[in-house]
Structure formats: C-alpha cells, structure tokens
Hints:
Number of strands of chain A: 2
CATH class of the largest domain in chain B: Alpha Beta
Order of helices and strands of chain A: EEHHHHHHH
Low-confidence stretches of chain B: 1-17, 628-632
CATH architecture of the largest domain in chain A: Orthogonal Bundle
Largest sheet of chain A: 2 strands, antiparallel
Number of domains of chain A: 2
Structural class of chain B: alpha+beta
CATH superfamily of the largest domain in chain A: DnaJ domain
Number of helices of chain A: 7
Largest sheet of chain B: 6 strands, mixed
Oligomer: heterodimer
Largest interface: A-B, 54 and 67 residues
Radius of gyration of chain A: 22 Å
Mean pLDDT of chain A: 88
Number of strands of chain B: 26
Helix content of chain A: 55-70%
CATH architecture of the largest domain in chain B: 2-Layer Sandwich
Helix content of chain B: 25-40%
Amino acid sequence: MSGAIVPCWSCKGPISPRALFCSTCGAVQPPGVIDHFGRLGLRRSFAIDPADLDRQYFGLQRRLHPDRFATRSAKERALSQQQATAINEAYETLKDPLKRAAYLLRLAGRVVDIDQAGTVDDPALLMEAMEMREALADATTLAELNELMATAEAAVGDCHEALAQAFVDDDLDGAGKLTTRLKYLGKMIDETRSRKVGMTRQGL
Amino acid sequence: MLLQINEPGATPAPHANDQGAAVGIDLGTTNSVVAIATDGQATVLRDEAGHGLIPSVVAYGADGTILVGREARRELLDNPETVVSSIKRLMGRGVADVKSLAGTLPFELDVAADGGMVRLKVSGRTLTPVEVSADILRAVKARAEAVLGKTVDRAVVTVPAYFDDGARSATKDAARLAGLAVLRLVNEPTAAALAYGLDNQSEGLYAVYDLGGGTFDISILRMEKGVFQVRATGGDAALGGDDFDHAIAESFLAERAVTFGDVAITSSEAKQALATGRMAKECLSSSTWGEWVIELDGKTSRHRLELAAFEAMAAPFVERTIAICRAVLVDAGVGIEDIKGVVLVGGSTRVPLVRRRVAEFFGREPLANINPDEVVAVGAALQAEALTAGSDTLLLDVTPLSLGIETMGGIVEKVIPRNTPIPVAMAQEFTTYQDGQDAMLIHVVQGEREMVDQCRSLARFVLSGIPAMAAGAARIRVTFAVDADGLLTVSAKETTTEVEQAVSVKPSYGLTDDEMATMLRDSLEHAEEDMTARLLVEAKVEAERSALAVKAALAVDADLLSTAEQAVINRALDDVERTVKDGDRDAVLAAAAALETGTKVFAERRMDRGIRQALAGMTVENLGKSLGDGTK
C-alpha cells in the first residue's frame, strides 16, 4: 500500500496523494488525479444539490485560489494556480446538468458528444425536436414564446429527474438517450430566448 | 508541541515587512486614481488641493521634461502637440487597428513602424503606449509615496473587463516599467463591486454598469458570503464618454465650417475642439443649455448647445451600451427581474441620459453612493490589502472573450468559451490536412466571431518537427491556460510523438522581450539594482519556506534523528536564518542548498515511517484522513 503515500515537495515528509496541504508543513500540494466529484468532495451521482456544489466550490477556492498565495514563493503560486484550475474545471463540468450527465457517461465508458449536432437515431426524440422547431418557427407573439419556453423548461425538469433515476438504476442506454434529449431541449430554450430578446427589442 | 501551528496556506508570509506599501490603481482612459486600504477601509490618496483624480495626460517637453496630470493638461492650451491623452485606447493595439480609430485620436502616429505595436510621435520622440502609460503610473506611484511617506512597490491595477490579452499584457508591462510589481490585474467592474459589497454586505445578483472615458463594460456578478463570482461580462473597448465629446466637437466644427468654409484642421486644433466638447458635456450634466467659444487660427466662433440636442447626439452611444447589457443578461442566463441592484461606475455615468436609460432598462434606480470616479480604485485598494494581508473575501473572475485558434478556411475553433471561470486550462485536438505535413502554424485569436479576420489576432507560432504522416493522422493537442490575471499561455504538442512547443502569448502587438529589456534599461536608473533586489527577495522567500518546512518536520519526527544528526540540521537551519537576515543571494542559495542536502536522510526516514505505518494496518481511507487534506 506504499502507493498510498507520497512525499511532500516542501518538507519531504509522507502525505496522501490526495492531500491539498501537507499535514506537517502546511505547503499547498499539486492537484491529485481524481474525478471531478471527488475533487469537489461530492458523491458520484447525477442528482446533486446546486447549493452543495457551490458551497464545496467556494470553500475550496477560498483556500486554494492564487489570490491566497500572492505573497508566497513562486512554486506555491504555481501549485495554487494548478489547484484552482482543476477545481474550476470540475465545477464547470458538474454545474451544468448536461455536462454532468455526459461526464458520468464518460466515467462509465460511454461517449456522448454534447458539443456537435450529431445524428439522432431515437424516433421519439426526432419527432419531439421537429415539433418544437415548427412551433418555434410559427410563434409570432411573446405569449406564444413564453408558452414554448415553459413547455421546454418543464421537459428539462422531467429529463433531469429521469436522468437521476437512470444513473441510480445504472441504465446507461437510457441515460444516453436522455442526455441527447437534454441537449436538444437546451438548444430549443436558447433559440426561444434569443427570439424573445429580439421581440422585446422591437417592442422598446 | 513547541511549534506554532498555522492554518494551512496561512503561514506568515516571510518578509512581508521588507516590502513597500501595496496600493490599488485605477489606470483610466481619462483619469487615474490611487488608493490604499488598511483594515478593510480604503482611502483615496489625494494631492494637497484635495484632488483624487490624476488626469491620464502626459506632456513631453522639447527639453526632455515630462509632465503628468493637471500640469500636463494645462499644456493642452499652449502646446497641444506635445500632449498625449486617452492612451489607454491604444493599449495592446496594432497599427492596423488604429486605422479604424484614425481621426478620433488627437495625436500623430508613426505608421511607418514595422506592423507591430502602435507608436506615437511626440516632441521628436517615438513612444509606445506602454511607455506613456508607464509615465502615468510613475506619477501615480510618486503621488502615493508622497502621501504615505514610504515606498510603494506593489499594486493591484485595474483593467476593463473587456480588455483583451494584448491590452492586459501591455498594462502589466507598463507597471513593470514604472517600478511596480503587479499583484493582480483586476477587472474594473469587479473592483467596483468589491467596493460596494464590503459596505453593503449584499447578497444576490448585481449588474455593474461601467461607462468610462474610452471603454464600456457591463458585468453580472453574484455576491455571496464574501465571494464575488463574475457570471458574465461584456462590453466594448472603444465606446465611452469620449465619444460624447467627439460628437459635440464634430457638431461645433460643422457649425464653423458653415461660417468659415471647410478648412482642414491640425491635430492640435482637434484637441482644442475636443476639450471644448468635453467642457460642454460636463456642463450639460447639471444645466439645460450653454454656450461655448472656439478660437482656431485667429477665427472665433460661438456655439450654443441645448441639453436635448446633446442627448440626441449621445443617444446612439447610450443605446449601444443598453444593447450590450441585454446580450450579457442572456449570456448569464438571467432575467432583468433577477438583478437585485445596479452599480454605476465611471465618470460618464454622471451624464443624466445615461442614468435615466440605465434606470429604465433595469427597472430600478442604480446605486451611486460611492463616487463613480473613485469606486474602482477603492475596490482595487481593498483587493491589494486582501492579497498582501489576507482577507475573507474572494474574487472569482471569468474570461471576457472566447479564445480560439484558426483552422482551415479561416474559421475559428473556440478552445475556451467566454465567461469561463479563471484560472482555466483547456485543450483541443487538431490534425494536419496534407500528407507529409511536418509543421503547423498555430494562430491564436480572441473574440466571438466565426471568422478569423473578425477576431483579434493574439499570436502566431509554428509547431515544427511533426513526423511525416498521412493527412489527418497527426494528433496536435493545443492547450490554452489563462491565469488569474486573465493572461494566456498556449502550448501545442503532437501527441503521437510528444513534439512540444509552448509560447507565453506575447501578443502580436505587444513588446518583444528585447524591447522590454531595453526600455527597462533606458527608463529605470536603477533597473539592475531593482532586478537584483527582486531576485534576492525571491531567494529569501524560498529559503525561509524550506526552513519553516524543516522545522515543522522536526516538530513531528525529531525522534528519528540522533542528537548529533539533529545538531547538524539545526546548524543548517541557523545558517539559512543568518543569510536570510543579512546575506546576499549566493549566500542564501548556498545555505538553502546545504539545508536540502543535510535533511535528505531525515526525509527518507520520515517516508519510511509513513509507509511502515500504512502497512501496519491502517486502511488507505484512514491514512488519507490522518495524513489529511490538512484541515485538522
């Protein structure tokens, strides 16, 4: 089990590879190899409480952000930057439900591309996406857009619940489909929002 | 235990007292302000007449004298051709950018320059914007030193959130030239929020609307329990109150043209007209009309301007700011109703039309109880204190603009999207598009547009030595890292062969390291001493850190050493302490190296003990806990 201990770069004493600070000399350590959930001290799951996430994130940045090391040695400043970078990456990934779902799938060995459009082989989703797109194209009033927005947001809510359950049940196929659906719903909401902005601007 | 145990990450900063004071500086387009904070209370440092603002104006006399501030502004009337103002607009700009600003800048540019950074021709000298800004910062530093009665050598300097990488580097270079170490570049709106946040202890989402002389920024921040999290930011680096002055000056000049015919005017005459425009704007912030006189070339003209006419001129600019506000709200994914308050920053928010439109748009009266000209410097000073003396507040900032690289056909592939929290590092893979291609030009750009020529070019470098492979077979991993100052470093690596190249992005329009070195030599009488002193401080900080670490280790594991061994280590520690007190750099480095060698065996025994304890039945879990994340 000697792999469970590494020397601290500063006092050379033994520490856990996951330690943020050396327990003997207090020096900040390089970020350990650990998944985003572990980095933020959260259980690996889709259903996370945003308030919990923020609390963990702020707590870690309070201790590790480069601003805390402005007067320290060059090495400590560099390490704090690495730590803060790793924490930001974890936070950005887990904060967004879509990225979180894709990340959980990746941890399970499945790849879902959430950046590119890609093809959809789920007929139900295809139908839903086409209908939403038509409704958006047909909408001419702010009220219609608001209604579309409400429908899409409700669907996103359902999607989140279903995803949480799918990950609990280890139903990765289901989770994959839901993640793709979430991606399309997100796009619809973005487009509806920019239509709304355009309409409000004209109204002013 | 004999040793004082400090909170991890909170061990006393060695030699904090060796250094001079740390101030906050708002290096503005029109005015600069310097402030200092003690125990969370910030004070603007004023001259004897009580002025906090130092006009960001520099006059270069033919005899080599340099005047900054009010004195320089006075020169505008007699020797306008020797005076440089609004230099911030040119920070990090290239010759090509300036074309779009041509005619709006009241000074002569050296367009013959080799396509790099813009240069100005003033009083027979050729100056870069970095040097002019350094002259302003020297005056700011001198003001602070005169008021405080001690050396000022470190500063938090603010920049518009929307400043690109080139402008940020240029600002940092200017501070360095002026003999100031930049503790952190902080975005102006964030600094303003900090100034308000500490007073009001507010929680929730806030908008900071910052309209300065030459730049506009809007930021959406979340304040919660001392953490300032920037959610989204947007703006325009070439939009500000100067545009109002311009509009007025242009209209006055057009009126003159009716009387005197179309006469080309010189750059110094343009400056006079602009100064008149500025006076008119300021006057119309409190009255409903006024009359101004312009005397050029011996010809006098009178110009009357009503508030309504001025507002009609200013309206297009104000509407642009409102459109940007709207876009940023969408970016942040928040509605207007979610905003708990609006903070006004920048002298141009004194214009009644601006206040009115901001209040209308956000549906609430904006906060303006801190002087909008000083609020940024106040926030910067608070941050300077937080960085040097420690604090409970924390600023979490974002990248203002997307960063990407050029791919085939001049299309931009984004690597880091805007509004990503910093520091950040992100990588993207690219490939070759020709068989046998052995090099790849990496062109780094910043901006939101799809096409390269619509974005700002930051740097170009070549990754060479790629082994010959079929098109699309090479895997080139480009990593972008942005530090807490918002400065970018790019590295590229061919991953199948590990061919690597890294550049710290010295912007296309920045100073080269050689230029910087020459400037430092030319401008600082004590450049070399200064550099030596800095290296010495860095060596001392490092040596003290190792000494503290060894003492901490002794406090826990001294029993691993014989009395004789301990004595050896103690002697090495004494040596370090002695050299840190009065040694030169070589002595400090030698003592630190001796300590390192002298504790090698001790370190090995400590590791052995740690491993033995692990094998002696502690589970990995428990071990992790006992060795800890250091929280105790």
